[in-house]
Amino acid sequence: MPEQVGSDPRGGSTPARWRVLGFAEGMLVYQVRCVVDDPGWHGPVPHLGHRVFLGRSGAYLRRLNGQVTVADPTTVLLTRPGDEMHVAHPYGDGDVYSCLEFTPELLADRPDAGRWLDRRGWDGTVDERLDLEHRMLVARCVRGLDGFEFAERLHRFLGRLLAASPIGAGEPGAEIERAVGRRPATLAAHRRLADRAREVLAGSDFRLGLTEVAAQVGCSPHHLSRVFQRVTGQSLTAYRNRLRVRAVLDALADDDGQPLGSVAAEHGFADQAHLTRVVRDQVGHPPAQLRRLLTAPETEAA
């Protein structure tokens, strides 16, 4: 199905270009590209059920049950019936995400049903291998899957997604809660600082230096680096590279014939060798192979 213009096909609150990628009994996957004119808050998004939102490109803000977070290509969100979500686009429109939607009946038949149905949803991140699996699933859906294969691939992806989701002490921010003794004001201030740094990096062209990012958020590079590591569990460099690699994957999936050296320069890498090294370290494949994996009709997803 080609992209359609309108709201989210299942009850969204802002204009978008959306495309159904696949469906089977009890499950639906679609892609949304936001095209809003008003950068302010919109919502609430009605009829939120068991949905998984996976970032693909761009960034926006979402407020889920009163908690504001930055959504970018590294994030994953699980919602449950009764959740209330608003979204805002202060960085401009054009962000793209995939939405996976499931019925309670389908989830109840899974061996991990309790973890989907009985625990709180999560608002966290996905690692690079899972992000690549997500993108390859999208690529396979675009090329065409029958209902049987689509359902099998999606069930397999769900299991890996749940296994990788943050639970308890492993959730982002747990280390900083211990470090500051759970003082609410300090914890909130550090989270705001980390979120502001994420906003700056997500909205940049990857050419900003650490000093420039720190200046934009109003603190020293040392303080920003220390707080960001504690809040997110990763360094600023690691987070920046995660954003860059996801942007590169988008460029490779477009397959417009752009030389890899140009892709490297466009995304702030020193040269093609630097691009290849960082991408291979994160997702396990060099850029040339990823271009084939994400575009070639005959390629099967792992």
Automatic annotation (TrEMBL):
Keyword Transcription regulation assigned: yes
Keywords on record: DNA-binding, Transcription, Transcription regulation
HTH araC/xylS-type domain span: 191-293
Organism superkingdom: Bacteria
Stored SUPFAM superfamilies: Homeodomain-like (SSF46689)
InterPro entries noted in UniProt: AraC_XylS_family_regulators, Homeodomain-like_sf, HTH_AraC, HTH_AraC-typ_CS
A Pfam family of this chain: HTH_18
GO molecular function: DNA-binding transcription factor activity; sequence-specific DNA binding
PANTHER family, per the entry: HTH-TYPE TRANSCRIPTIONAL ACTIVATOR RHAS-RELATED
Protein name: AraC-type DNA-binding protein
Organism lineage string: Bacteria, Bacillati, Actinomycetota, Actinomycetes, Micromonosporales
